Structure formats: structure tokens, C-alpha cells
């Protein structure tokens, strides 16, 4: 037996590498003709929600990404086909946009969002109906997929077609207090992504407006949402995370998969 | 040549790893319990950044994987490897160093995760120490420390294996040697490739391979290797078939790693890779059957031990659950089952059955057997040990059935395109039962901790190996270096 020890050792290692070939090298080879996109290439084409963030929270945006990036973001047209001509201007906001995407993704990882949300649509169980087009390998060949964030569990909805499904405002209110936008949600709140907005409406006014709503459940939800919406502004992390969420799925030419109710 | 007992096994190393292991298991179970409260709208730390529910979830799995399983297995190896080979491990000093290095790594991992430095690889959230995908340092590089520990342990254990030259190596030695080498490779592959070199789909295939290999090429070989040692030792009779055990080993080595991609079925990974993984997964069930048959044949004629001997009861309960888990694997890996159960609570139910119901049960059994030998005291309360067993087993069974049912409800509601908040609402009752079952497990474990503590503290009766030897007559003197008297402490 002793004589064959070397053979056994090689056999054991061989089995490990066999599996690596079967589930590593082979898929790599099959997928090798898909071009790889760097972060800068992705960020060359900012989503309209980026401009909206600059508009919606001007102070926060400036604090986070600088005055120049904000000015440039505002120059971006709402219509993607009509980009501003000055390449230097685009570059300034593109750099900030890339930074926001990268940071947003870091937070998505650090907070473990990927343990409750998946990021790929399967071609079964009517998933196309609910989320949008089935996931293709070429969607994931880029720098923001190191490592990929597919996830293995859906406590919350799939997020790979999130672009434009909700407004920036909605995301802010939702991250501050998920039950405010989605009563009964089990998603944790993320108040550390926000600062109190110094110019928020007096609370009494909001409460007075809420009193007019007859249904109690509806009133509570409305009040929570309005308080969150008016009092808060996302900090740098919050803005980055919202940018990242809005970016998800924006690479698909089709406009948003607006079946948020599903 | 037989060495004096005191030079063979370093009981202080065994004890060190067990003490930290059971402590981290408590942390892990508590974290899991707290996380479950998030799902019934009663999470106590809502709004505290470093105790955010999802971070606590990662603490739950990592404390159990690296804090408990690694410590538990290492402690058990320090006992089993010298005994199967007849040689002590390389160096006691190295053992002390590795022990503290491991505890430091576990703590750094736990703190790192809570501070938001986790890595996005399941079962590999251990912080890399760098911003995701870049080389900008942000924390202690826990991944590298784990590698250092794994290499150190392999060196430590290779000494007794190599010195056993010329003798026929018992199957435990096969599993342990192979497992230690595979662990290093697996860990490096999963924690470095998808993070820096393999984006997207190919990276996902490797992450799947990593998740699976970590269970299949680290936890499983260690677990079975130790079973092949402790079951014959406690029953005082040799394993039923040595050949079958070797067949089981090689079949496991061949099929298990090929399963990897089944964690991402119906994904953009090329379909032929997925079908390969599905077939390999089904094949594993055949392998598992040979192993389980071997153990039950060994039990033949000693069945009363399951009733009288708690470690044996833990071991065989674990084996039954192992068989159930693998039977589940063999059919829920098919694409038809995947349509419904993937992404649902079915999967955590399955995972708890194997990680808790099998490997944690086995380690609890091993600790139950060794603790009196380490401390020199008989168990403080045998009754409490039995209570602990029942609370734990019933708790886990409830959790498994509950999560499985919850998974089916989720899966079918998702397919029916029910509104998401309705699905979440329908789950809450299941999640409530899950929390209750977690409380049962936690209660059972609290009994264990109290019992361990009191046994170490209070000597109701001194432990005497002779008493135990008399109880079950040895059929054949096993070729293992068993103690015939109590170890000196």
C-alpha cells in the first residue's frame, strides 16, 4: 500500500482539478468571447436617475461628489440620446458616477443585501412575467461583477431589473424605513445612510395633513413615508447605494419593467 | 513500539479548541436566533448599524463555520489522528500557535463582518482585507489568515501520517489527509478567483464550486473521517467493511466536487455544465448509501448503544439525517424541483439539516465523549445531556419541516405571480414557528454549556476509563491506539 501513496495523492488532487475543469475552465472557455467591460466603460453612459439625484438633493450631492460633478450631472439631458457635447463635462460627472456605482456596490455587499435579494432572472416559473427578460451571461461580464451578486435566496424581490422601477425618492424612503413604502416588509431599515435634512418641513404640518386620511392603516403608512421623505437626505453612502440600485438592469435597451406591484 | 499515553495526545490542545468551539457555537446560534426575529418584525437592534440584521446573518454562518466547525474538527483531530497513526502531532508549540491564530482570525472575521467588511461569497464572507475587487486595504486580511491556519494544520497533521509509513493506513487517515489538502485548494480558489479574476457567470460557477467543496471536501471528509474513528472506538468493534469504506472515500472524492454548479441552476451558466452537476449530485446519493450501510452494519448487534450511549446516539441520529439530506439532494437538484424551491426557504431548511443536524450533532457527540476524558471528571448531569439531546433534535426537526413547507408555499406563490408583499405576509407564520424552533435549539444548547461548565468545575465522580471499558465488551481488539486507562490530565 505504502508504495502507492504517491499515486493516491495525485489521484486525490486530480479529482479536485477535474471538478475545477468541469465547473470552472469549461464555462470560462465557453464564455470567453464575451467582451469584458471596465467600470469606466460602464460609467460612460450615466442613467437619468443620476441627474435626478443631483437635482433632488443638491447639498448632499455636492458634499458627496463635489460641486463640479453636480453641475455636470445637471447638464445631462433627461433624454439619453441627447448627451451634452462637451466631453470634459461628461468626464467630470462620469468619474463621480463611477465612484458612486463602485461605492454603492461595496455597501450592497457589506450590508448583505445579496443574502435577501437575487440578481438573475430564470426562464421558468413565470419569472419573465414578473421581473423582465431572462438573464444572459453577457450582462455580467464587467468590473462590477467581481464577484457577481447573483445570490441564492429571494426574501425580497429580484433586483437585476430594478432600473426605473421606483423613483429615487421612493428608494430613499424605503431604505430609511421599508415599512413606510411597503407595509409588512421584513427588510431591515438603514438609517445610517441618511442625515436629517436641515430644511425639512415641520413635523406638525405633516401630521395635520395625515389626520385627514380616514383609514388608519393607510394613514400610518402615509405618515411614515412623508416623514421619511421630507425630513431626510441621503448621505454619500445613501446616494451611492441608490445610484447602484437604479443602475441595475439599465444595460437592457428595454425601458423599465414596471411591474413593481408583482 | 507503543508510546506512553502522555506523549501521544496533547489534551490541552484538544481542550483549547473545544472550549473556543463551543463558545463560538453559542455566538453562532444566538446570532441565527436574533436574525430570525427580523422576519417576525421583532428584531431588537433595528437601526444600530453594526448589528444590522443582514450583518448578523453573516455572523451566524461564519461563527458556526469557522468558529465552531473548524475548532471542533481541529480539537477532535488532535485526539483522533495520533491514535489512528500511533504518532503524536508535529509539535505542541505549533499547536498552541495555530490555536490562537485561529481564534484571532475568527474574532477578526466577526468584527470585520459587523463593521461592514464582508466579502460577497457565501460561506466565504471572511473579510479579504481589501475593498471589493481592488487592492486598497480596509481590514485585517482574514482570508489569508485562514490559509495560514489551514496550511499549518496540514503540516501539523502530516507528521504523524508520514511517520506511519509502512503500516496500512486506516480510512480516517485517508479522509483527514485528503481533506486537509483539499481544504487549502478550495479555500484559495473560492476566496481569490471570483473576487479578483473571474467576473460574472464564470465566477459564479467557481463560487458554486467553492460553496460545495467547502462542505464536500472539508466538512464532509473531516466528519466521516472522525466517524470512522469514534464509532468503532466507542462500540469497541471494528468497522463492518474496510473495503466499503475505501470505496466510499474514492467515490466521494470523485463525485462530490463535480456538484458545485448545482447552487446556481437555471442561471446563465452553460446548460451542459449544469446538467453535469445535476447528474453528479444524483450519483452522490449512491456513494452516501454505501457509507451509511457500512455504519449501520457496524451497529448490528450493538443497537442498545443508541439508547444507552449518548455519543453513539448523536452520531447515528446525524447519519439518519445525513441520509435524508442526501436523498433530498438527489431529487431537488432536478430542474423540475428547482423551478419551485430555488430562492425559497426550502434551501435554508436543507442547509440546517446538514450543517446542524449532521456535522454539529457529530461534534457535539464527540465532545460529549471526550469532555470527561479531558477534564478527568464524570459528566455533571447525564440527565441534562439527555434533555439536551431531545430539545435539540425536536427543535431541529420542527425547523426543518417548517422551512420546507414555507419553501413550497413561497415557491408556488412566486410562480402564481402573487404580489410580493402577500408572499411575505404568508411567510410570517412559518417564520414565527422557525423562531420558536430556534429557541428550542438554543435552550438545549444552554443546557450543554451549563453541563460542560459544571463538569469542568465540580467533580461529582472522577472519570475512570475502566468503568466504561467494562460496559461494552470488545469483540476484537481494534487496531487503534486506544487508551486502556484514564489519561493523565
Structure report:
- The complex is a heterodimer of chains A (262) and B (489).
- Chain A is 52% helix and 2% strand.
- With 262 residues, chain A is mainly α.
- Chain A has a domain at 39-196 and 233-247: Cytochrome Bc1 Complex, Chain D, domain 2.
- Chain A is globular.
- Chain A starts with a helix and ends in a 15-residue tail after the last helix.
- Chain B is mostly helical and 489 residues long.
- Chain B has a domain at 305-462.
- Chain B starts with a helix and ends in an 18-residue tail after the last helix.
- In chain B, α3 (53-85) packs antiparallel against α4, α4 runs antiparallel to α5 and α5 runs antiparallel to α6 (171-197).
- Classes of the chains: A mainly alpha (262), B mainly alpha (489).
- At the A-B interface, α1 and α6 of A face α3, α6, α7, α8 and α9 of B.
- Total of DSSP H or I helical runs spanning 4+ residues of chain B: 16
Mean pLDDT of chain B: 91
The CATH topology label of one domain in chain A is: Cytochrome Bc1 Complex, Chain D, domain 2
Percentage of residues assigned to helices of chain A: 40-55%
CATH superfamily of one domain in chain A: Cytochrome c-like domain
Q: Write down how many β-strands of chain B occur, each being a DSSP E stretch of 2 or more residues.
A: 0
Quickly name the level 1 CATH class of one domain in chain A.
Mainly Alpha
Q: How much of the sequence of chain B is in beta strands?
A: under 5%
Query: What's the overall average pLDDT of chain A, rounded?
Result: 86
Which class of secondary structure composition applies to the elements of chain B?
mainly alpha
| Major protein interface | A-B, 72 and 91 residues
Order of helices and strands of chain B: HHHHHHHHHHHHHHHH
Amino acid at each position: 500500500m505504502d508504495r502507492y501513496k504517491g499515486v493516491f495523492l495525485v489521484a486525490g488532487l486530480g479529482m479536485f482539478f477535474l471538478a475545477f475543469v468541469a465547473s470552472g475552465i469549461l464555462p470560462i472557455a465557453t464564455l470567453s468571447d464575451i467582451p469584458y467591460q471596465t467600470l469606466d466603460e460602464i460609467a460612460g453612459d450615466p442613467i437619468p436617475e443620476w441627474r435626478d439625484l443631483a437635482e433632488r438633493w443638491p447639498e448632499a450631492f455636492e458634499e458627496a461628489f463635489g460641486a463640479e460633478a453636480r453641475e455636470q450631472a445637471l447638464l445631462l439631458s433627461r433624454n439619453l440620446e441627447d448627451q451634452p457635447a462637451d466631453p470634459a463635462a461628461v468626464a467630470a460627472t462620469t468619474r463621480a458616477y463611477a465612484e458612486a456605482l463602485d461605492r454603492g456596490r461595496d455597501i450592497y455587499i457589506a450590508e448583505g443585501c445579496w443574502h435577501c435579494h437575487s440578481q438573475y432572472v430564470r426562464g421558468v416559473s413565470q419569472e419573465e412575467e414578473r421581473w423582465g427578460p431572462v438573464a444572459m451571461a453577457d450582462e455580467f461580464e464587467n468590473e462590477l461583477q467581481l464577484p457577481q451578486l447573483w445570490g441564492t435566496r429571494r426574501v425580497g424581490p429580484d433586483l437585476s431589473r430594478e432600473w426605473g422601477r421606483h423613483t429615487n425618492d421612493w428608494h430613499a424612503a424605503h431604505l430609511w424605513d421599508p415599512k413606510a413604502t411597503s407595509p409588512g416588509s421584513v427588510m431591515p431599515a438603514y438609517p445610517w445612510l441618511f442625515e436629517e435634512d436641515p430644511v425639512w418641513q415641520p413635523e406638525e404640518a405633516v401630521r395635520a395633513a395625515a389626520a385627514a386620511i380616514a383609514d388608519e392603516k393607510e394613514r400610518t403608512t402615509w405618515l411614515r413615508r412623508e416623514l421619511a421623505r421630507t425630513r431626510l437626505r441621503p448621505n454619500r453612502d445613501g446616494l451611492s447605494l441608490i445610484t447602484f440600485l437604479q443602475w441595475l438592469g439599465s444595460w437592457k435597451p428595454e425601458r423599465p419593467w414596471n411591474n413593481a406591484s408583482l | 513500539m507503543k508510546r506512553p499515553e502522555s506523549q501521544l495526545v496533547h489534551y490541552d490542545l484538544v481542550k483549547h479548541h473545544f472550549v473556543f468551539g463551543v463558545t463560538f457555537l453559542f455566538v453562532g446560534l444566538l446570532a441565527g436566533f436574533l436574525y430570525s426575529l427580523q422576519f417576525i418584525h421583532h428584531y431588537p437592534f433595528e437601526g444600530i448599524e453594526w448589528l444590522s440584521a443582514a450583518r448578523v446573518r453573516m455572523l451566524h454562518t461564519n461563527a458556526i463555520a469557522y468558529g465552531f466547525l473548524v475548532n471542533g474538527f481541529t480539537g477532535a483531530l488532535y485526539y483522533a489522528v495520533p491514535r489512528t497513526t500511533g504518532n503524536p502531532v508535529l509539535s505542541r508549540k505549533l499547536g498552541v500557535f495555530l490555536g490562537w491564530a485561529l481564534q484571532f482570525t475568527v474574532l477578526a472575521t466577526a468584527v470585520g463582518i459587523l463593521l461592514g467588511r464582508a466579502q460577497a461569497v457565501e460561506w466565504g464572507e471572511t473579510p479579504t482585507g481589501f475593498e471589493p475587487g481592488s487592492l486598497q486595504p480596509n481590514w485585517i486580511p482574514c482570508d489569508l489568515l485562514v490559509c495560514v491556519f489551514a496550511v499549518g494544520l496540514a503540516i501539523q497533521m502530516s507528521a504523524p501520517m508520514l511517520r506511519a509509513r509502512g503500516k496500512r493506513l486506516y480510512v480516517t487517515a485517508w479522509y483527514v489527509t485528503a481533506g486537509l489538502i483539499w481544504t487549502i485548494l478550495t479555500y484559495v480558489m473560492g476566496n481569490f478567483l471570483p473576487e479578483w479574476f473571474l467576473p460574472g457567470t464564470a465566477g459564479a460557477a467557481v463560487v458554486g464550486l467553492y460553496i460545495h467543496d467547502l462542505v464536500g471536501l472539508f466538512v464532509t471528509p473531516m466528519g466521516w473521517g472522525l466517524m470512522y474513528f469514534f464509532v468503532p472506538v466507542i462500540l469497541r468493534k471494528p468497522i463492518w467493511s474496510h473495503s466499503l469504506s475505501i470505496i466510499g472515500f474514492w467515490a466521494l472524492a470523485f463525485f462530490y466536487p463535480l456538484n458545485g454548479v448545482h447552487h446556481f441552476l437555471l442561471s446563465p451558466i452553460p446548460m451542459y455544465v449544469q446538467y453535469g452537476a445535476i447528474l453528479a449530485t444524483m450519483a452522490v446519493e449512491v456513494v452516501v448509501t454505501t457509507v451509511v450501510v457500512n455504519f449501520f452494519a457496524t451497529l448490528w448487534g450493538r443497537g442498545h448503544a443508541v439508547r444507552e450511549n449518548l455519543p453513539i446516539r448523536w452520531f447515528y441520529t446525524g447519519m439518519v439525517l445525513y441520509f435524508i439530506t442526501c436523498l433530498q439532494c438527489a431529487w431537488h437538484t432536478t430542474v423540475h424541483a428547482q423551478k419551485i424551491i430555488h430562492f425559497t426557504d426550502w434551501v435554508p431548511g436543507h442547509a440546517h439539516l446538514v450543517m446542524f443536524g449532521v456535522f454539529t450533532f457529530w461534534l457535539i457527540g464527540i465532545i460529549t465523549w471526550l469532555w470527561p476524558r479531558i477534564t478527568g471528571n464524570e459528566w455533571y448531569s447525564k440527565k441534562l445531556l439527555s434533555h439536551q439531546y431531545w430539545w435539540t433534535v425536536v427543535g431541529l426537526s420542527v425547523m426543518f419541516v417548517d422551512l420546507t413547507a414555507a419553501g413550497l408555499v413561497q415557491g408556488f406563490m412566486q410562480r402564481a405571480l402573487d404580489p410580493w408583499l402577500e408572499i411575505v405576509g404568508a411567510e410570517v407564520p412559518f417564520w414565527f414557528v422557525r423562531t420558536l424552533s430556534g429557541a428550542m435549539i438554543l435552550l438545549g444548547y444552554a443546557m450543554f454549556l451549563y453541563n460542560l461548565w459544571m463538569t469542568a468545575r465540580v467533580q461529582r465522580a472522577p472519570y475512570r476509563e475502566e468503568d466504561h471499558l467494562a460496559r461494552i465488551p470488545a469483540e476484537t481488539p481494534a487496531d487503534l491506539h486506544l487508551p486502556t486507562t484514564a489519561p493523565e490530565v
